[in-house]
Each structure stands twice: as structure tokens, then as C-alpha cells.
Amino acid sequence: MKLNGRESDRMIDGEAAMDGEAEMFRYLVDAVQDYSIYLLSPGGLVTTWNSGAERIKGYRRDEIVGKSFETFFTGEDRADGLPARILASANRDGRIETEGWRVRKDGSQFWAHVTVNAVRNDRDVVIGFAKITRDVTVAREASNALRRAASTDPLTGMWNRSAFLSELAQWSADAAPFAVAIIDLNDFKRINDTLGHAAGDELLRATAENLHRREELGIVTARLGGDEFAAAALTPDPQSVEDFVDGVTDAMRAPVRFHEKTRTVPASIGIARFPADASDISELLVRADAAMYDAKERGADDAMRYREGLLEHSASRRFLGRQIVGAIARDEFTVLYQPQSSLKDAAVVGWEALVRWRHPILGLLHPGEFISIAEANGTIVQLGEWVLRRACRDAAGWGNSSRVAVNVSAAQLTDDQFLGSVTRALEESGLEPGRLELEITESTLISHRKEVVSTFEELQRLGVLIALDDFGTGFSSLDTLLSFGFDRVKIDRSVLYESLQPSRTRDVLRAILALGHALTATVLVEGVETEQQREILKLEGFDEIQGFLTGRPGAGPSDPSQSEDADAPGAQGAGRDTGLETGQILLPRP
Fold first, then answer.
1. Measured between alpha carbons, how far is residue 101 from residues 44, 86, 143, 350 in Å?
2. Are the beta carbons of 109 and 74 closer than 8 angstroms?
């Protein structure tokens, strides 16, 4: 076919234009610096190379053209056949987009976002692949940092609640049996208040480290907020449950270092199992939480497991716990007084203050029904201060010289503001310090001995009397009696009962009496209910008694006739009832 001059010129111009466009396209591709753009042969050999590819991967054009693109993959990915799978997918689907680690010429790695498109000719045959690679390492690190921030507790570096729940949700979706523990530090508020927030933060980080070490046992851990931690582990069999409980318990018993000292901080631990205790994650955590509060109220050193009915019990206790502060403001609490009498002449020499809660819905509640709740949620300090002020005010108006005895909890005694509370109560009421007696259990002194020594001395310097309560209940030691100058020793009613059994002698009572008198302390016996008991105690030389025989809790010396109804709920425990104790114990009739 012949062409005239004009047609020939047009063809030459068209070919030139096409060559010009191809040249411009090549320049354009080569000018792109942020993307690695090159072509591969159908077998994966590099056939073109732009300046962006050289910048990102480090190879010059003459170093890489003709070599397999497998060069850019890690040894693990090459061994796994990843390069071939990528080309096969692009060949089948026309395009594949993926991310992964790639290797530069110098051996360093970067996170790559890769797109591979199949290149086809006019007959729809794949003649190669166009590959575009972008280094997104910085973007990936930023994204990972955001994810870590969203799932990590910033103080301890542990998982936060959201990440922990996500893991449990995955386990439950896989129908894998597992156990979860809710953990609460018992002394955290006091440590935070007395040593400062920096010490509190140190304690939280140290606790997190102890828990983190258990991850080698397959235990995942998290900080849920405040001083509350959580742990969980897959438990396919009963032994694995035991191992999990032991692992968490050991972690929380391990010493922690904070505020330049190493010490052990007690914790309450509650355990619940999936799906045995609950098949829903939220319900499972609620049950573990209920078990944790059960452990806290019992003062248990071991982890407590969820049991049937505990949730309802916990819910009712939390209902009361949320109301305590408001009940104080609404004046729902009242104080009754039980007489303490001299065995010498039967005169009433003192009155023990016993708190009651006149709940608008539940009626009259005794200490055993709410004191442990107040201790668990920290409101015991406010309630204890209210009882102290009320008892001092009432005693100041009695018009006699009898003392008033007020129970003091461990939380009060270790509170920095306690001395000030006692001083204010005396000043506001006008009560003479020598008429106020604070009853302290030996368990409190043993648990917080170093912290309360100075407080004890300051109280006695004020002229306030100190009584050792519940002596003989299992904590008693000569060391305790010698370390603190008690004004009165109160023998627990259980000692009285055991010592008066036919198979026992009264040697125990006599020994305690001799010890108390040797330390110049008055010795009082609690739980006296019969004339026989009184006569025996009088014969042995005891000083004072307290119990149903000499009077039930009532309004005090201002109106002794207004005693508490013996048939009221909980009144059967009134002989043993104490103002801020956690329970009531009945004395069997001898």
C-alpha cells in the first residue's frame, strides 16, 4: 500500500507522538520518589526500575533488573512461598493488595504496602505484572502506637479494661473454658492518703510487675482502673483452674517495693469460671467481683471463688454500702449503750457505745449487718467518727462520772486525721478525756503495729483510756500486752464459756487475770449471762463484767428503762454486740 506525502507525514507524526507519550510516561514514573514502581516478567523477574524503587529499596537499576522480586522478601516469607502466591493471586484476580515486611539492599526491613496488577496484551494474555510499593513503616508505627494507647493502661503498661474484655470475648467466642480473677488492693486508699499519690503510683506499678511475671504461666493481666486489677487464663481442666488460682494468689502475696521500702500489701481476690459460673462476659465479671468483695469482707488471704447465692448477697450489701454516707447525713444511725459493772459493788462504771442503723426500708440493722460493708468500701472512717462524736456528746450529758467505751476500727486508727477527730469530739462535747475509753482489738494492733504506736501514745497523752478488746480470741500474745500500756483488758466471752465447761479448769481465766493485774490493767469479762458466772468471776477476783445479766443495750444512764427490745431482729446477739465490730457471736448457755 502506497501512501501520499501528506498521509506519510501524518503517520510519522503519530508515531512520534506515541513515542513522545511513552517517553513522557517513563519520565513521570521515574520522577516519582515516594513509590517504588517497576514491572515484572510473568515469572517475577524485574524488568524496569524507577528512582523511587532505588530510594526505597537501595538497589540501582543495573543491580536489580533481571533478578527475581523474591529478593525483597524475608527468608521466612520466601520459605513459606509468599512471592509465588502473590503473583498467582494477581494472575487469577487481576490485582492483589497486601502489606508485610520487605528487605532493603542493606538488609534492613521496612513495612510495605504493595499493589500488584496483572498486565495483559490485546489477546488477554498476562505478559507481566506492574508492582507499586510504598514504605509505610512510620504510618504503621503511628497506628500501632494509637492502638497501644487505646488498649494500654498508661501508668502500668498493662492492658486496660477494653483490651482485657476484648480478649475474653475472643475466648468465649471460641467456647474455650477459662477463669477470671478480680483483684483489689485492700490498703491502697490509706497508702495513697498517708504516703501520697506518688507512693500510690509506685505501688500500682510494682503490683503490675508481679502480675506480669505470671504471664509465662499463660495468665493475661490488666488494670481495670484505680487499684483494681484483673487476670484470666484458659482452664481446660480442673488442675489448670487450681494453677491459675495459685499463680494469681502467689503474685499478690509477693512483696512490692514502693516509697523506698519493700513490703507486702494485702489484696482481695475473687474468682469466677466460664462457662461454669456464667456464659456471658459481663455476668462473669460481676460474679468474680462479688467473690472479691466476699474475700474483702471476710479478710481472706486466699482467693474466694464464686458460689451460688453470692451475687444476691453481694448486691444487697452494695445496696447498703452506697447508702451509708447518706444515712449518716439523714441521721438514720443511733447509738445504744450497754452497761459495764463493777464486781465489787455491782455499780455501773461504764457504758459501751453500740451503733444501730434504723433503715427506713429494712428496719433496725445491727453492726453485723453493715460494719463489714463500711470497712470494705471505706466509709467506716466517717461512720466511726460519727459514733465517737455522738458517744462523747451523750456521755457529757449523763451527769455522772461513768466512762463511755467506743470501738475503733483499724481504718480509723491508721487514719492521719484520727487524733484530730478524737480531740474535736472531746472539745465539742466538753467530755473529760479520762471518761472516754477507746476499745481496740489485738488483731488491729498486730496488723498495723508500726503505724499505730505513735497514735497510741498520743491518745494516752491526751488522757484517753485504751482497752484491749476480745482478748483470748486467738491473737493474744504477751508481747502485745507488754508493748502497749492498756488501761483495761476485755476478756472475750468465748474464753469465759470454755473456762467454765465441766471438762476444763479455770486456770486460763486466772492466768489472764494475774497477767492483767500485773500490768496494772483492769480486767473485764464479756458475755456474762447468769448469776453463776458472776459469782465465779467475783470469787476469782475479776474487776468488771458486761453482758445480758447486767443489762441489754439501751439509752444509757439518762433513761435505763429504754433498753433495746430483746425480740428485735439481731437482739439475741446484743450481749456480744460491739459498736464497730463485724459480727455477732452467741454464747451457749453453760
1. 18, 14, 16, 81
2. yes
Residue where the block lists cell 506499678: 205
Query: Could you give the strand order of the β-sheet that contains 109-120, starting from the edge strand earlier in sequence?
Result: 36-40, 126-135, 109-120, 95-103
Provide the 3-class DSSP secondary structure of residue 390: helix
Secondary structure percentages of the chain, helix, strand, coil, to 5: 45, 25, 30
- Give per-residue burial for 141-162: e unless 16+ CB within 10 Å, then b: eeeeeeeeeebbbeebebbbbe
How far is the CA of 22 from the CAs of 40, 251, 503, in angstroms? 18, 69, 114
Q: Residue 493: pLDDT band by 50, 70, 90 thresholds? A: confident
8 Å CB contact between 513 and 522 = no
Pair 328, 334: CB distance under 8 Å: no
Percent of the chain with pLDDT over 70: 83
Question: 23: how many CB neighbours lie within 10 A of its CB?
Answer: 10
pLDDT exceeds cutoff 70 at 561: no
For the beta carbon of residue 101, count every other beta carbon within 10 angstroms. 14
Cβ-based burial of 38 (10 A; exposed 0-12, middle 13-18, buried ≥19)? buried
Binning pLDDT at 50, 70 and 90, where does residue 17 land?
very low
Q: Tell me what pLDDT residue 16 has.
A: 46
Alpha helices in 45-136 (DSSP H): 51-57, 61-64, 75-79, 82-93
Q: Cell numbers of 9, please?
A: 507525514
All three cell numbers of 399, joined, read 451527769
**pLDDT by residue (tens digit) across 437-456?**
999 887 777 767 777 888 88
Q: How far is CA 411 from the centre of its chain?
A: 18
**DSSP letters for 270-329:** EEEEETTT-SSHHHHHHHHHHHHHHHHHHT-SSPEEP-TTHHHHHHHHHHHHHHHHHHHH
Contact call for residues 233 and 244 (beta carbons, < 8 A): yes
User: What is the mean pLDDT of the segment spanning 240-244?
Assistant: 95
Q: Which helix (H) or strand (E) holds 110?
A: strand 109-120
Look up residue 273 and give its three cell numbers: 469460671
Nine-digit cell string for 64: 536489580
Q: What is the pTM of this model?
A: 0.55
Which H helix or E strand runs over 580?
A: none
Q: State how far Cα 301 lies from the chain centre.
A: 14
Burial of 351 (0-12, 13-18, 19+ CB in 10 A): buried
Dump pLDDT digits (tens) for 471-491. Answer: 766 555 566 667 778 899 998
- On whether the CB atoms of residues 513 and 494 are closer than 8 A, the answer is no
The tens digit of pLDDT for each residue in 342-382 reads: 999 999 999 999 999 998 877 898 998 888 888 878 899 99
Query: pLDDT digits over 498-525, tens only?
Result: 666 655 556 777 887 888 888 778 999 9
Q: Which of 443, 422, 446 lies closest to 582, judged by CA?
A: 443
Report the alpha-carbon distance of residue 24 to residue 506 in Å, rounded: 113
